[in-house]
Amino acid sequence: MLEYKTIEGEYFTEWEINKSRFLTYIKHVETEIEAQEFISSIKKKHFDARHNCSAYIIGERSEIQKSSDDGEPSGTAGAPMLEVLKKNELSDIVVVVTRYFGGIKLGAGGLIRAYGKSVTLGLDVSTIIKKSIFNCYKLDLNYDLLGSFENYLHQKEIRIQNKDYSDIVSFTLLLAQNDSENILKDITNLSAGRIKIEELEPVYLNIPLNTK
């Protein structure tokens, strides 16, 4: 598992230059099939547009990167769109820019700038998140330790995924990787080793990097 940035949800923006309208559709996806289906849906929606250019990056290592000029001169649409996604270090994301031609040619340089700007405008309204890895632990303790244990969790602002109160108390905690070792040492010292700690599979948490 690796940490990486992506977006949350789906967004739309529109702008115009020299009578050409640029409509940007941007969405979080997790597979190449999802990305292709989204592109197809936008092409179907705007079947009357001259161009529906696209770019997407998939995978925690950005393993899959593809783009399409969809009839624009080679390298003037899909490539600059993909470059904006890469510059922002985003993955699991697809973007489609639909262009309604206004009768005035923009030239190669103008197209590159226009398609790049279209993606930037889409990202400006998007909620960008970091997929952060948290270590996950299940802790079992007796009720006589509960008060001091909960105080410690509150002081350290530790994320609690689950609580269970039965014969004993069970907490499932999510700890940042850099903090895990020290926190577990604190808990062991706090309880004189009486809290049972079981390591579970790490999980991803979505941490917002901007607010919209």
From TrEMBL:
Gene Ontology CC annotations of this record: cytoplasm
Q: Which residues form the Impact N-terminal domain?
A: 19-120
Task: Return the SUPFAM superfamilies for the record.
Answer: EF-G C-terminal domain-like, Ribosomal protein S5 domain 2-like
Q: Which residues form the UPF0029 domain?
A: 140-194
Q: Name one GO biological process term.
A: regulation of translational initiation
Task: Extract the Pfam families matched here.
Answer: DUF1949, Impact_N
Q: Which NCBIfam families match?
A: IMPACT_YIGZ (TIGR00257)
PANTHER family assigned: IMPACT FAMILY MEMBER YIGZ, IMPACT-RELATED
Q: According to its UniProt record, which protein family does this protein belong to?
A: Belongs to the IMPACT family.
**What's the protein name?**
YigZ family protein
Q: What is the lineage of its organism?
A: Bacteria, Bacillati, Bacillota, Negativicutes, Selenomonadales
